């Protein structure tokens, strides 16, 4: 059977008769030629480190002293190769586990990162000594040099904060807590947003209403804190032909805010059933008011299109024909479902308040957040009817603030003499970049 000896400053010269050296570059491989020769494994801190990772097989006597013999794991790769393969969370967890294991004993670590190997199941093959010697240094100093060696994207939390931790940290515990804090922050997102509405060139009143409600809360973990962003963005288009369209859309917006705000404040996760329940409650309130009115022109109704954000969870929901678009990279996609009549052009087949909750369809879903950045646009049909998706895409991905982009979209719709009110809510969503890829 063949085994591996951790990297050494010099190729070891084997003294005992149990093993023979097979190769000393790039990895030190030995073969067990006398398996009947046994020795008792020592219980020193060096051995305990390898035992913790379940890789210690034996020890071998060399001219440089007793060295560990480790089980060969599949797919041994260099440190830099490993760093390029792991996602950010796994990188942080690997370092945290490594440093947590090192701090358990008094050891010194070989300081050549070019000879730091890791198996596919993240078992480190580094060389340790029980006493200080040339090329081996105290583990806290080695850990700081390792952090400095491992690169991330220029604007990542890793690159922005590691200089401070290298300078200030005096113990492994401080470094480990920093890694835990970074790990917890992988759920943080940054959201920029802006909304605007206009009655349009042909309408005397604006029957569109929109809502933007956001706040941040601080969630405490055992040894770190996570800044949680929560936001509710909703548009309602009062139904055309109903005299109370402007009142209806405002009422619907206010009721949704009242009902969903309870969920936003108390929960740190999104429950799609809670969103559906909220829309049903709002529908029943508006529908009940309508049943008290005898005149058709006094009855109220409106579309609903909304986005709820609770940290890194994002949900969309809609009833009616107000669209919600996702823009990611060079692609735009409508993620909502438009409820329009198959028989009458532009007639809305579903809306809040015009019939009992048992008769309305609420579309909803969670948003796939693959990728670091994307946009969400909630629009009324006054915009969607006259500005094509490709034009929306070009405006949204262009340079400028979310406010300037919303302004441009509205001006495009108004310049084309849209026949309806025009409203747009634009959200720019970015994930917090923990480490990322270093610039080449």
Short description:
With 440 residues, the protein is α+β, with helices and mostly antiparallel strands. It is built from eleven helices and 21 strands.
Could you characterize what this model shows?
Helix 7 (245-266) packs antiparallel against helix 8. Helices cover 30% and strands 27% of the residues. It is built from eleven helices and 21 strands. A five-stranded antiparallel β-sheet has the order 12-21-20-17-18. The chain has a five-stranded antiparallel β-sheet with strand order 13-14-15-16-19, covered by helices on one side. The two termini are 42 Å apart. With 440 residues, the chain is α+β, with helices and mostly antiparallel strands. The chain folds into three domains: 2-70, no CATH class; 78-186, no CATH class; 188-431, Phosphatase 2c, domain 1 (4-Layer Sandwich).
Give average pLDDT, whole number.
90
Binned strand content: 25-35%
Low-confidence residue ranges: none
CATH fold naming of the largest domain: Phosphatase 2c, domain 1
Shape: elongated
CATH superfamily of the largest domain: PPM-type phosphatase domain
Percentage of residues assigned to helices = 25-40%
> Ends: how far apart?
42 Å
Radius of gyration, rounded? Answer: 31 Å
Q: Which sequence of strands runs across the widest sheet?
A: 12-21-20-17-18
């Amino acid at each position: 059977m063949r085994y591996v000896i951790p990297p050494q400053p010099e190729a070891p010269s084997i003294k005992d008769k149990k093993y023979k050296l097979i190769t000393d570059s790039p990895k030190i491989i030995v073969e067990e030629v006398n398996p009947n020769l046994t020795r008792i494994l020592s219980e020193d801190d060096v051995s305990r480190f390898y035992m913790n990772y379940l890789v210690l097989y034996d020890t071998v006597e060399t001219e440089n002293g007793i060295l560990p013999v480790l089980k060969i794991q599949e797919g041994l790769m260099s440190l830099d190769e490993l760093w390029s393969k792991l996602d950010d969370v796994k990188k942080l967890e690997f370092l945290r586990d490594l440093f947590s294991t090192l701090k358990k004993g008094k050891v010194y670590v070989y300081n050549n990162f070019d000879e730091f190997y890791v198996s596919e199941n993240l078992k480190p093959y580094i060389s340790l000594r029980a006493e200080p010697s040339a090329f081996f240094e105290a583990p806290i100093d080695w850990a700081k040099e390792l952090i400095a060696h491992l690169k991330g994207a220029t604007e990542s939390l890793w690159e922005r904060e590691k200089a401070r931790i290298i300078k200030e940290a005096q113990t492994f515990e401080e470094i480990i807590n920093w890694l835990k804090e970074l790990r917890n922050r992988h759920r943080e997102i940054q959201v920029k947003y802006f909304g605007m509405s206009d009655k349009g060139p042909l309408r005397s009143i604006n029957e569109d209403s929109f809502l933007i409600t956001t706040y941040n809360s601080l969630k405490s973990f055992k040894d770190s804190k996570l800044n949680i962003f929560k936001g509710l963005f909703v548009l309602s288009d009062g139904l055309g032909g109903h005299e109370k369209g402007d009142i209806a859309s405002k009422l619907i917006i206010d009721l949704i805010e009242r009902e969903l705000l309870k969920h936003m404040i108390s929960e740190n996760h999104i429950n799609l059933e809670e969103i559906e329940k909220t829309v049903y409650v709002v529908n029943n309130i508006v529908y009940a008011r309508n049943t008290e009115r005898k005149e058709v022109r006094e009855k109220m109704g409106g579309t609903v299109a909304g986005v709820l954000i609770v940290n890194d969870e994002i949900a969309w929901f809609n009833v009616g024909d107000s669209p919600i678009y996702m823009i990611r990279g060079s692609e735009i996609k409508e993620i909502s479902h438009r409820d329009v009549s198959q028989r009458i052009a532009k007639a809305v087949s579903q809306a809040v308040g015009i019939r009992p909750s048992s008769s309305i369809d609420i579309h909803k879903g969670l948003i796939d957040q693959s990728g670091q950045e994307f946009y969400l646009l909630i629009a009324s049909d006054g915009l969607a009817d006259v500005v094509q998706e490709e034009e929306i895409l070009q405006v949204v991905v262009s340079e400028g603030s979310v406010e300037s982009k919303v302004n441009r979209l509205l001006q495009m719709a108004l310049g084309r003499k849209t026949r309806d009110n025009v409203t747009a809510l634009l959200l720019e969503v970015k994930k917090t970049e923990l480490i990322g890829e270093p610039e080449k």
